[in-house]
Amino acid sequence: VSMASPFPTAAELLVEARRAYEQTYGEETPRLVAVCAPGRVNLIGEHTDYNQGFVLPMALPLVTVMVGSPTFDQDVAVTTLSEDADEPRKIHFHLPADGTPLSPGSPKWANYLKGVIQHYRAPPVPGFRAVICSSVPLGGGLSSSASLEVAAYTFLQQLKPDDEDKVSKAVACQQAEHTHAGVPCGIMDQFVSVLGREGQALLIDCRSMEATPVPLADPNLVVLITNSNVRHHLNGSEYPTRRRQCEQAASILGKDSLRDATMEDLEDARDKMDDVTFRRAHHVIEEIDRTVRAAEALKKGAYKEFGELMVESHNSLRDLYEVSCRELDELVAAAVEVEGVYGSRMTGGGFGGCTVTLLQAHVIDRTLLHIQERYSGTPTFYVTTPSEGARALSL
Ligand code: GAF
C-alpha cells in the first residue's frame, strides 16, 4: 500500500477522451484516430540543452492523449478535459487558407496547438475536431507543454503524414513553444517526448542531436518523482535571462557555446565577466561533464556514484545557477536522509515543480513517509518507469 499517486494508463485516458468526443461531436466518427505523447523527467543535465550540452531524461508513463477526426473543411474544434485555471475548455478557429500565421491568444493551452499547426512539416493541415486529456500535471515541471505539442503533432501525422524524421518533429514542436508560448526552450523535452523508449533513459547530445539509450529497468531501483506542488511565478523572464547569460559568457570566452568551454577557460576569463555570469557558466560547464559521467555510472550500475552526481547537480542549480527554491531544497534534503536513497535533485526548469530521486526499491515506503513528514508543504509522489515516446493508439 503505497502513498504514491495512482495515475491512469494511456488506454484509460483514451476511453475517457473517446467518451467525451462522442458526447461533444456525436457518435458518427468516420476516420477516428488517437495518439499519445509522454511527459518527461530529467535525471541529470539541467539547463545544458540550450548550451549544446548533454541531458539525460526519460519519457514518463504520464501522457497526453488526443483523439479526433478530420472534418474536411477549414475548421478546428478542440476540447480539453484538463481542469486548468479559469480558461475555457473549448476552442474553435479557422485555418487560414493562404498560410497567414495563426497568432497566439486565449486560451493559453490552445497556443501549443496553434504553434504545432503553424510549424507542421507537411502544410496545409486539414480541419479537425478533437478531445485532449492528460495525466501529466500541468505546470509541474514534467513537460506537460511538450507532451501536448508532441501529441498534437503526432495527431496531425495521422491525418496527413509528413515525411520527416523524428528529430525534425521534435524541432518543429520546440519552434511551436518558441513562437506560440514565448518560451525560448532547448530541445530536451520535445526530443524525449518523441524519441523516449521503454526501459531506457536517453543521453542526448543537444549539439549533434544524437541520442544514446541507457538501460534503466533494474527491478531493485525506483525513480521517484515528488511534486512540490508549488510554482513560483516570478515574472517569466528568469529562463530567457539564464539563456542570455550563458550566451554572453560563451561570447566572452570566444566560443560558439558553453559546450566548447572548460573550467580552465572560464577561470582565465574571470576578470572579463561579472560574478553572476561567471557562476551561470560555472554551473553549465560542470553540469555538462557531470551528465556524461552520470550516464557512464548508470550504464555500469554504479547507482551510488550516480546519486552523488545528482546531489552535486542540485547544489549547483541552487547555488550557482539559482533556479531552485526553498521547497525543492527541502524535498531533496529530506530524501537523501533516508538510508537506501542514492540521490535526489530538482528536475526541469526550476522555481518549483518536481524533484527526482533514485532509490532502492525496498525503501520506497519509508522514503515517502519521511519526505511527507519533513516537507513543509503537501507533496505528490509518482513512482515511474522509463516509457515509450509518442505513438498512435489503436481504437
Ligand atoms: C525547461 C526547458 F523547456 C528545457 O529545454 C530545459 O532547458 C529545462 O527547462 C532545463 O534543463 O524544461
From TrEMBL:
The keyword tRNA processing does not apply. The keyword Phosphoprotein applies. GO terms for molecular function: ATP binding; galactokinase activity. Pfam families: GalKase_gal_bdg (PF10509), GHMP_kinases_C (PF08544), GHMP_kinases_N (PF00288). GO terms for biological process: galactose catabolic process via UDP-galactose, Leloir pathway. It catalyses: alpha-D-galactose + ATP = alpha-D-galactose 1-phosphate + ADP + H(+). Its EC number is 2.7.1.6. Residues 111-196 form the GHMP kinase N-terminal domain. InterPro entries: Galactokinase, Galactokinase_CS, GalKase_N, GHMP_kinase_C_dom, GHMP_kinase_C_sf, GHMP_kinase_N_dom, GHMP_knse_ATP-bd_CS, Mevalonate/galactokinase. Residues 20-70 form the Galactokinase N-terminal domain. Residues 294-359 form the GHMP kinase C-terminal domain. Pathway: Carbohydrate metabolism; galactose metabolism. GO terms for cellular component: cytosol. Keywords: ATP-binding, Carbohydrate metabolism, Galactose metabolism, Kinase, Nucleotide-binding, Phosphoprotein, Transferase. It is an enzyme of class 2 (transferase). Catalyzes the transfer of a phosphate from ATP to alpha-D-galactose and participates in the first committed step in the catabolism of galactose. Homodimer. Belongs to the GHMP kinase family. GalK subfamily. This is Galactokinase. It comes from Tetraodon nigroviridis.
